[in-house]
Amino acid sequence: MLRSLKYSALALGLMGATQAMAGPDLTVVSFGGANKAAQVKAFYAPWESAGNGKIIAGEYNGEMAKVKAMVDTKSVSWDLVEVESPELSRGCDEDMFEPLDPKLFGNTADYVKGAIQPCGVGFFVWSTVLAYNADKLKASPGGWKDFWDVKQFPGKRGLRKGAKYTLEFALMADGVAPKDVYKVLAGKDGQDRAFKKLDELKPYIQWWEAGAQPPQYLASGDVVMSSAYNGRIAAVQKESNLKVVWNGGIYDFDAWAIPKGLAKDRAEAAKKFIAFSVQPQQQKTYSENIAYGPANTQAVPLLAKDILKDMPTTPENIANQVQIDVSFWADNGEQLEQRFNSWAAK
Questions:
Q1: In sequence order, which residues have a C-beta less than 8 Å from that of residue 146 and are 6 or more positions away?
Q2: CA-CA distances (angstroms) from residue 86 to 55, 128, 162, 325?
Q3: In Å, what is the CA distance from 227 to each residue of 14, 230, 292?
Q4: Which pLDDT tens digit goes with each residue over 305-343?
Q5: Single pTM value for the model
Q6: Contact partners, residue 207, CB within 8 Å, separation at least 6
Q7: In angstroms, rounded to a whole number, what is the distance separating the alpha carbons of residues 346 and 340?
């Protein structure tokens, strides 16, 4: 019996040591859907298999107010949050996110320009594009001008309910070249022009808020065209006739950020997780499971050619796209979102 107790104590001791080595469980909050499914395969499962601790996967729709409330009340329960570039920039300026040492992530020259930021790391490149259901249209649209043409392409349109992306698309529909979009949008006349163009389409718009909605709306025939995240369309192309128009797309990074005020051990574990997620092998697996471009360019040679054709960052796909202007949205986002909400409510 004494020997049995010794073995039990030894087993408990070893178990405790293993748990201590494993590090704390991490709550990682992403945008869900096909994106989250790819993250599970590329990041969460391999992280857990390597004995680093469990990942508790959460979802949200990008509501920065939730993150701000946690930070302000010093009740941070999210260890890592996926954010788009403008929100990362604004959150960084407002001291909502932990600063990160770029050295933690290897050679910055190995990353797509702009991926490594002072308090966040882009882990994939994605585009908001024009998507359409080829079964519902007689001809293929060539860009946002056609999106606004309800005579040649009758039917409802899907747009994300917000100023960001929507105003840029409206200007491109009104004849502004992709390279000039932010130059025009920077002035009050340009902003008025974008809203005036949106007035034309308003009766035909079905708004969406979650990334899963555009493919659903397109597949059901609720809309004939929609703005959409390119990866969400690619994820359903095998079982549907949904297609992407890269011309006039807007590309951006999604980044990991650590909310300010996290306990030290959890913050250190979160930093290790970020570094793990941007290693070439993890980046390769991620891009194999959703059509988003790797932020670490060392993953590109590891990817098959048939996968690369659906990536927003291949030369032919990116040629007529716009890189989101992070500083523009950081400076003007609040005012333009308020104006958009008032406009949409009328």
A1: 152, 153
A2: 26, 14, 13, 8
A3: 53, 9, 16
A4: 988 888 888 878 888 999 899 889 988 999 999 999 999
A5: 0.75
A6: 158, 159, 160, 161, 344
A7: 10
